[in-house]
Amino acid sequence: MKILVMNGPNINFLGIREKSVYGTQDYDYLLGMIAKKGEETGSTIEVFQSNHEGAIIDRLQDSYFDGTEGIVINPGAYTHYSYAIRDALASITVPKMEIHISDITAREEFRRISVTRPACDGQIYGKGLEGYLLAIDEVIRLAAIKKEAPQA
C-alpha cells in the first residue's frame, strides 16, 4: 500500500518546540518510527513536511495522480483555519486520517476547532507520536474495506 504522511508547520521542530506539549523526541525519531511501520505493514510510506500552505496543497493534489492509497495528515496550525487544505483533502477520495500529537481538545480554545477534520475519515489526538502509527493502521484498515466494497 502507498501511504502519504503529511506534516504541516513546525512539526519538523519536534524535540525543540514546547517539549512539555510535544515531547522530547525529534523529527528524525518520528521518521524512523514511520519507516519501521512501513516495513512492518509492507507499505510504502512517503513523509512530506512543509511550513508552507501552498506546498501542502500541491502535494495533496499530486497524491490524486500518483497512486497514493491513503493519507495521514498533521496540518499543524493550518488545522484551525486553512479552508484551502480542507478543500484539497475533500477532493481526494482515498482514506484520510488527521493526527495531532497533543490533545487539542484540552488546549487553547482556537486549537479545539478543526476545519480540516470534516474532510478526513477520522481524527486521532493526544496519543503523542504513537498517534501516527495508529493513524497509519486505520488508513490501511479503511483502504482494505474500500477494496472489498462493491463498485457502484
Describe this structure in words.
With 152 residues, the chain is α/β, with parallel strands linked by helices. The chain has one domain (2-148): Dehydroquinase, class II (Rossmann fold, 3-Layer(aba) Sandwich). 39% of the residues lie in helices and 17% in strands. The protein has helices at residues 19-22, 27-41, 53-65, 83-90, 130-148, and strands at 2-7, 44-49, 70-74, 96-100, 122-125. It has a 5-stranded parallel beta sheet with strand order 2-1-3-4-5, sandwiched between helices. Strand 3 (70-74), helix 4 and strand 4 (96-100) form a beta-alpha-beta unit. It is globular, with a radius of gyration of 15 Å.
Beta-strand portion reads: 15-25%
Structural class: alpha/beta
**CATH-assigned fold name:** Rossmann fold
DSSP helix fraction: 25-40%
The largest β sheet comes out as: 5 strands, parallel
Which CATH-level-2 architecture? Answer: 3-Layer(aba) Sandwich
Shape: globular
Q: Give the overall pLDDT as a whole number.
A: 93
Tell me the CATH superfamily. Dehydroquinase, class II
Count of folded domains: 1
CATH class designation: Alpha Beta
Strand order of the largest sheet: 2-1-3-4-5
Cα end-to-end separation:
23 Å
Produce a short descriptive summary:
By secondary structure, the chain is an alpha/beta fold. It has helices spanning 19-22, 27-41, 53-65, 83-90, 130-148, and strands at 2-7, 44-49, 70-74, 96-100, 122-125. The mean pLDDT is 93.
